[in-house]
Amino acid sequence: MKKKKVIIIIGAVLLAGAGLFAINAANTGATATTPVAVEYVARDTIVNTVTARGEVALLNTEMVFSNAMAEVEYVYIERNDIVNEGDVLMRFTERSLERLDNRVREAELALRSAEINLADSRLPAGDTTIESQRLAVVQTEQDITNLETTIYTQRRDLERLRTRIADQQRTYDDNRALFALGAVSRDVLDNLDRSIRDMTDELENFENSLARNEMSLDSLRANLSHRESVYAETRNRTGTREVQNVIAQRQVSVEQAQLRLRDAQRERDVFSMEIIAPMSGTVSMLAVTRGETILADRPIVEISDVDNFVIRLDVNERNAAGLRLGQDVEITGAVLGRGSVYGEITRIGSIAEQRQTANGLERVMPIEVTVRPCELAEVLRPGFSLDGRITLEVRENIVVVPILSTLRDRDGNTFVFVVRDDYTLETRIIELGLYADMMVEAVAGIMEGELIVQQPNLNMYDGMLINPLNMADVE
User: Fold this and answer.
1) Of 8, 134, 279, 346, whose Cβ has the fewest other Cβ atoms within 10 Å?
2) Widest CA span of the chain, in angstroms?
3) What is the mean pLDDT of residues 215-241?
4) What are the two backbone dihedrals, phi and then psi, of residue 3, each rounded to the nearest 5 degrees?
5) Which CA distances in Å does 316 have to 26, 183, 356, 357?
């Protein structure tokens, strides 16, 4: 309450002073002045920082895989267990090894079958085989001839039946007219109608039979082409292009069978009945249970060195150009309470990535920060969310001005209002450098010790007379 009273009193005094100054100026004929807060240009240190979000990530982890499909007999570990390099993590059943042996045997048999087929395609055919193939061709040709004759007869009979149906329909139409005149009886009409329906059913049966025979004829012709090819191959087992293609295809089958056999043998040879820990650490992931059959190349255990971690942060792409190895980083987060831990950038990603943030999808540059050992850092655990403040650049003993003291003109130039000795304003264009918080580096255009307006506005102008309100405070 006392502070508020002091501020009110000081404000009243300043306003009263400004009023008296204005009255005196009016009484003496001087130009009225505007009360304005001012300050001297000074040197200071500017620290340029950016913030980024991230989490604690493990530095050393190793995934454990099974190199074959196998059934788990025992699991000796649980999640969060501490293991040493070389410890047995789990064991597979004997059936798993038997299954691999069977795969090898099946691959051996498949290779043998492919080799037999290849050898058979290269053997010359005997006279009996050749004659058998020739007779098959002759028989198929005869079947085609017989079926073509049948189809020809069916098509002829079909046309005759259609003609009979048309004639009967005309007779029916004529008798229906006579029936209307009473010249014929209802029985005559009914008999004609029944005859038409019977012939229509017969026509449908004829058409279906013809369609089936035509399909059979197409099949026989295709079969004839195949039998002729087989007959030609039989007569000259290695001379025709078709036979050469068959030999080439069977050679490919042999090579494929050889590859499958080698894969099966390699999988059996490298298979181990036990999974061994590749490093010492904590079981951070366990994705298998006893009795489960796991697939090859599926991650089943993850072992992590939880005592060695890094902070992974995502820096917005706008600030990525200023990142350097070794830059200082202040780490804060809910787990740290009001405290902070410190570290430095030890890795900068080589490829930008896309992340979902509170502002939508953003392009970020991932970095890693190594935390300096301290008591507070011991509470950090993998997965904790953290914030990082990265020091991009530090400039000491440089000329700075408040950001709020700068304005821009229509040409895009940055300027400040410098207060001359007679309390008139001078518009001074300046060149800015590094920004940090509410201060900015003045690279050129103004010097240390010059007096400037703290928060100018666009109503001010070059040559304007002002009344510095706080000269006693800035001197």
Assistant:
1) 8
2) 142
3) 78
4) -60, -45
5) 57, 103, 12, 11
Distance CA 288, CA 73 (A): 11
Rounded to two decimals, what is the model's pTM? 0.48
pLDDT tier for residue 14 given thresholds of 50, 70 and 90: very low
Where does the pLDDT of residue 334 fall: very low under 50, low under 70, confident under 90, or very high at 90 and above? very high
Residue 428 identity: R
Could you report how far apart the first and last alpha carbons of the chain are, in Å? 28
Q: The tokens of 163 are what?
A: 């003609």
Q: Do domains 30-46+397-474 and 51-61+305-394 have the same CATH topology?
A: no
Q: What single-letter DSSP state applies at residue 292?
A: P
Residue 272 structure tokens: 């181990």
**Which residues, other chains included, contact 36 with Cβ-Cβ below 8 Å and sequence gap of 6+?**
453, 454, 460, 466, 467, 468, 469
Q: What is the pLDDT of residues 37-57, one digit of tens each?
A: 999 999 999 888 889 999 998
Cβ–Cβ under 8 Å, residues 323 and 361:
no
Polymer length of the chain: 475
Return the domain boundaries, the chain.
30-46+397-474, 51-61+305-394, 125-236
Tell me how far apart the alpha carbons of residues 235 and 131 are, in angstroms, rounded to a whole number: 9
Conformational region of residue 6, where left means phi above 0, alpha means psi within -120 to 50, and beta covers everything else? alpha
Q: Which CATH class is domain 30-46+397-474?
A: mainly beta
CA 269 – CA 68 distance, rounded (Å): 10
Tokens of 396: 């000491």
* Token duo for residue 249: 């295809």
C-alpha distance from residue 317 to each of 51, 252, 330, 365, 392 (Å): 12, 53, 20, 6, 14
Query: pLDDT digit string (tens) for 351-362?
Result: 988 887 767 788
CATH of region 51-61+305-394? 2.40.30.170
Taking 3-state DSSP, the helix, strand and coil percentages for the chain, each rounded to the nearest 5, stand at 45, 30, 25
Query: For residues 395 and 442, is the Cβ–Cβ distance under 8 A?
Result: no
Phi, psi of 435 (to 5 degrees): -95, 150
Give the separation between CA 340 and CA 386, rounded to whole angstroms: 10
Q: What percent of the chain has pLDDT over 70?
A: 89
Residue 27 has a CB neighbour count (10 Å cut-off) of: 8
Report the alpha-carbon distance of residue 285 to residue 301 in Å, rounded.
Answer: 5
pLDDT tens sequence across 100-124: 999 999 999 999 999 988 887 766 6
Interatomic CA distance for residues 349 and 353, integer angstroms: 9
Rounded to an integer, what distance in angstroms lies between the CA atom of residue 22 and that of residue 32? 6
Which CA distances in Å does 165 have to 187, 199, 260?
19, 7, 67
3-state secondary structure of 227: helix
